[in-house]
chorismate mutase
Amino acid sequence: MPEDTTAEQAAPEDLWRLRRSIDNIDTALVAMLAERFRVTREVGQLKARHRLEAVDVAREEAKVARLRENAARAGLDEDFAEEFIRRVMAEVVRQHRIIAEEG
Amino acid sequence: MPEDTTAEQAAPEDLWRLRRSIDNIDTALVAMLAERFRVTREVGQLKARHRLEAVDVAREEAKVARLRENAARAGLDEDFAEEFIRRVMAEVVRQHRIIAEEG
């Protein structure tokens, strides 16, 4: 049984089933995000070694546009998808600058 | 070849390879987010039918705590993970309120 201690103990069986799906999806999302930052750390080290800029605006904008298309096809709100990827990319740039300074 | 038209055309082969990984991960993230909102829309409809509250603070806080643990295990920054899931949950609540009003 899930750890609910609230009014929703009275909720239907379906709710419990759907929440199991959400929990599984969240585990997958965390794993995917962890892997994305693992790869972008490698990119950061490569950029630092080759003294490349941490930010590539043209590539970022192309990425946003492509992600919005993917979102539309998958039935995900495009603005939500854009906000999400911009937040991720900002964190990547922050990490790349730290890597460049450390290197 | 990727669609880079910037200075990074001169970047090493490894960068291209890593960016292919990032693009694949982003496709997976979009698909997972789309699926999460598909499931939470079902939850919203269920809650509306049973006149349950859109927000369950106890469940949300338990979810945040569990996600931070998952993030730590996966090597993902815990604060980033928390900010991410809180943004997702805020969007879910917004959608659930719309569903409740429409119902």
Q: What stands out?
A: Chain B touches chain A through 58 residues (CB under 8 Å). Residues 13-49 of chain B form the longest helix (37 residues).
